[in-house]
Amino acid sequence: MTVVEAGGTRLNVERLGGGAAGAETVVFVHGIATDNLTSYYFTVAPEFAAAGYDVVMYDQRGHGRSARPPHGYGIERFSGDLGALLDELGLDRPVHLVGNSFGGTVALDYTLHHPERVASVLMVESEPPTDAWAKKMSGLLAGSAYQLHDERTLPWIEETYGRHEARLVRWAMRLLHGTSVAEDIAASRIPAEDRWHGLDVPVLALYGANSDLADMAPWLESLLPRCRTLKVSGHGHSVLVGTPETVGPLLLDWVGHRHKELVGGAPRAVPS
């Protein structure tokens, strides 16, 4: 574990592997509220390290062991943290970004503003930052904060799902009740839609076939000129932790050589 001061925010960082000299770097960006870097540490990150990649995982602001400032949670602050982290770690070569859920939105937002620093993007159950996304996310976070005010919620979660899930919810409560995250997401800096048409970076968007987000695949491929989408059958939004044995090889294949093909096309189902 390493603590890095990135852009004035203390971030908790874990690094695996390192590979041989000149190894490519893969940076993993987790989701929001009930998530942190462990969702990669216990799923696909070790597989990347074993394959010789330099693996970087970090807790985003407000999450895990990173700092939790009371304000400053617009999408531009999260993507700014990512850029500051790359600077602090001395990663001056283009990196591959893997983002799960909200983390994929952060990765894509950063890539739009700094395409020269990104070799490819791998989004798992994610979407670009749009006005509709900001409104939806803000509403979901505010609704979750309201529900977690009920003193019966946490005991029920622990009894139903176990202590680990309850611990994640406790961390989420600190973020949702102790910061302006819902309001800040709603006020995020949203890029103009036509900017996405000029993004010259390969993007893989992977969805659970049962997820509500899976239907956006055709729109995403029309929005991003170098985008390919995949669907994993039998899974929903939690596809990363639900079937890492399927997701890991798909992501490794993309980083290893598929992103170089730069071929679009219709989404295809991937057996689980």
From TrEMBL:
Q: Which UniProt keywords apply?
A: Hydrolase
Q: A Gene Ontology molecular-function term?
A: hydrolase activity
SUPFAM superfamilies in the record, alphabetically?
A: alpha/beta-Hydrolases
Which Gene3D superfamilies does this entry report, sorted A to Z?
Answer: alpha/beta hydrolase (3.40.50.1820)
Question: What range(s) does the AB hydrolase-1 domain occupy?
Answer: 25-167
Is Disulfide bond included in the keywords of this UniProt record? no
Q: Does the keyword Hydrolase apply?
A: yes
Q: Member of which family?
A: Belongs to the peptidase S33 family.
Q: What is this protein called?
A: Alpha/beta fold hydrolase
**Protein species of origin:** Streptomyces monticola
